[in-house]
Amino acid sequence: MHTTNAVNGANYLTYQGKYKGLLGWIFSTDHKRIGLLYLYSIATMFATGVLLGLAMKFELLAPGKTIMDAQTYNATFTVHGVIMIFMVVVPGLPAVFGNLMLPIMIGAKDVAFPKLNLLSWWLYVTGVVLVLCALLFGSGTPDTGWTFYAPYSFKSGTNLLPAIFGAFVLGFSSILTGLNFLVTIHRLRCPGMKWSKLPLFVWTLYGTAWIQLLATPVVGITLVLVALERVFGVGIFDPALGGDPVLYQHLFWIYSHPAVYIMILPAMGAISEIIPTFSQKHIFGYKAIIASTMAIAFVGYLVWGHHMFTAGMSGTAQYYFSLLTFIVAIPSAIKVFNWISTMYKGSINIQTPFYWAVSFIFVFMVGGLSGLVLGALATDIYVHDTAFVVAHFHYIVFGGTGFAFFAAMHYWFPKIFGRMYDKAWANIGWLVFFIGFLALYSPMFYLGMMGMPRRYYDYLEEFHGGNILSTLGSWVLVTGFIIIVVNLVRSARKGAPAEVNPWHSKTLEWTVPSPPPVLNFDKEPVLGEKDGPYNYE
Amino acid sequence: MSEDKHHHIVPYRLYVIVLVALLVLTFASIGITSIELGEFTVAAALLFAVVKSVLVLTYFMHLKYDKPYIKLMVAFVFAIFVVVIVITFLDYLYRV
């Protein structure tokens, strides 16, 4: 551990510890440096995933083969999915902003287990390298889709084992981060930081950590079973050997549905910080948001079967999963109601993070409501495995988690880097990105309703118009993304120095210098009776 | 939050007793496979595994001496596990 005397006056970006240069970063146990390591790693993987998505959209610009054949297309959507799910949105907000902000928000010097935290990042990098090995070496890039569905996952001749092992290792990274955050939130809150005074972002990280800890081992074991099935033919999922492929889907979705909440809960937490800050008003229904967070974390465990309505499940199970799916929509709706009510009669200060936050609410609502179409048994049978599902999923995961990530990035950027970005360019970036997003994914709802299947590199002539619009949208979206990245990268180096609290927020991270010192606080903060994360009145 | 100053010290004797119990149960779970139990074979294996897990959690992982909220968390995890198993069998038991 660093000593206070050694770090006097230095912030975490400039502090010179035991190692110099790059080693000073990749062996740092400072939660903020680890957060930035995650940011750079995840941003790199996100850019890779975007390029693959762009290639897929280009292929779909016209019917028939445009730039790739069917097998390459299958491999492309598989790699796009594996990268975006396991390497971007699952670690996403918790690993980046959780690491950067959680300890400061609760008045702590670091997370509970700093070395374990660094190990999480190393495991993440190891997982990434393993998956990249699957792409570059062996008998062909995996083509199963990111879900690795049995029985194809043990029949496909592609190089699947390193990808499965990579996902397994990435799971360990996620579990350790969850464990670390759970202990940190329980044990390291500063004096006066009662549970009823925790910022909502911390509450959502708490719910997320539970899911990471409890659900991730299930997918780990399931992926091991697939590997055993491939190598030894043990017959757990293979019907030819008495196994049940639907069991694979159960096990996979027992993790992967809660994983959707790993993605979206911290996103909701970030939005719950941004809306009251830019409305300069106490969050409406603080306790209701906490209750809905925990309800989502809990009920989210019990609805996995709605991914399997057409897989041959029993009718009883289908009724049950459909009912609970409708119930899990309620806490999400409660949150939306609370955000809107917070804005009502607030002194709204329209800045870039606020634009991202309100556009998040819009796309999240569209994604959520289209999810009900898929949660209802009758309509799901009509649109399952069509472009409609892809549109819904991207509205929720990209529109939800992605928009919240950018919102959080623009919100905490001055704190993280100690510099302010160019607000005009940031707003232009948001607008172009938002328009591109709508143009890219909205036509897919229509295409899916008209019957265009997902995961095909070709389509009928009647779907051409919608696909052209969608591909054009992907170009606009990428333009927006480039504007945002260039603006942020440039501003991190050359932006005007940021104030301690440029948004007039009330949470603890805005009481420390920008960028924060190595140990966050000169003196351990103490919260008084009247202090609170949203006391604007 | 303040650190716990008090740590319960468990005598070695207790650890040895638990270790012996675990070994006995391990051999018993192997031994029982020689008896034909039909559809209860899996249930018997699981029963032994559950008893062993409870012993490990209670004594080796100090759950017996922990605060109630820690016990509650562990109980909650097991409750979730049971619920997930029950829900999965909503599919398997009712397939036509």
Q: What can you see in these coordinates?
A:
The complex is a heterodimer of chains A (537) and B (96). Chain A has helices spanning 21-26, 31-59, 70-89, 92-105, 114-136, 161-187, 200-232, 245-279, 286-299, 315-343, 352-375, 377-383, 387-417, 423-449, 464-494; strands spanning 419-420, 496-497. The longest helix of chain A has 35 residues, at 245-279. By secondary structure, chain A is mainly α. Chain B has helices at 12-31, 41-60, 68-92. The longest helix of chain B has 25 residues, at 68-92. The termini of chain B are far apart. The A-B interface holds A 186-189, 214, 246, 250, 254, 301-302, 305, 312-317, 320 and B 1, 3, 77, 80, 83-84, 87-88, 90-96.
Keywords:
heterodimer, A: 537 residues, mainly alpha, Cytochrome C Oxidase, Chain A, two-stranded antiparallel ribbon, globular, B: 96 residues, 3 helices, 68% helix, flat, transmembrane helix (chain B), Cytochrome C oxidase subunit IV (chain B)
List the helices and strands and how they pair.
The complex is a heterodimer of chains A (537) and B (96).
Chain A: H1 21-26, H2 31-59, H3 70-89, H4 92-105, H5 114-136, H6 161-187, H7 200-232, H8 245-279, H9 286-299, H10 315-343, H11 352-375, H12 377-383, H13 387-417, E1 419-420, H14 423-449, H15 464-494, E2 496-497
Antiparallel strand pairs in A: 1-2
Helix pairs in contact in A: 2-3, 2-4, 2-5, 2-15, 4-6, 4-7, 4-8, 4-13, 5-6, 6-7, 7-8, 7-9, 8-10, 8-11, 8-13, 9-10, 10-11, 11-13, 11-14, 13-14, 14-15
Chain B: H1 12-31, H2 41-60, H3 68-92
Characterize the largest beta sheet of chain B: strand count, sense, and whether it forms a barrel: none
Which word captures the global form of chain A?
A: globular
Q: Give the total of domains of chain B.
A: 2
How many domains of chain A, as an integer? 1
Number of helices of chain A: 15
Which regions of chain A are unreliable across 5 or more consecutive residues at pLDDT < 50?
A: 1-8
CATH domain class name of chain A: Mainly Alpha
Strand content of chain A: under 5%
Helicity range of the residues of chain B? 55-70%
Return the average pLDDT of chain A rounded to an integer.
94
Count of discrete alpha- or pi-helical segments spanning 4 or more residues of chain B: 3
Name given to the CATH homologous superfamily of chain A: Cytochrome c oxidase-like, subunit I domain
- Described by its quaternary structure, the protein is heterodimer
Measure the end-to-end span of chain A.
39 Å
Biggest interface and residues each: A-B, 18 and 15 residues
User: Under CATH, the topology of chain A is which?
Assistant: Cytochrome C Oxidase, Chain A
What is the CA-atom radius of gyration of chain A, in angstroms? 23 Å
Pattern of helices and strands of chain B = HHH
Shape of chain B: flat
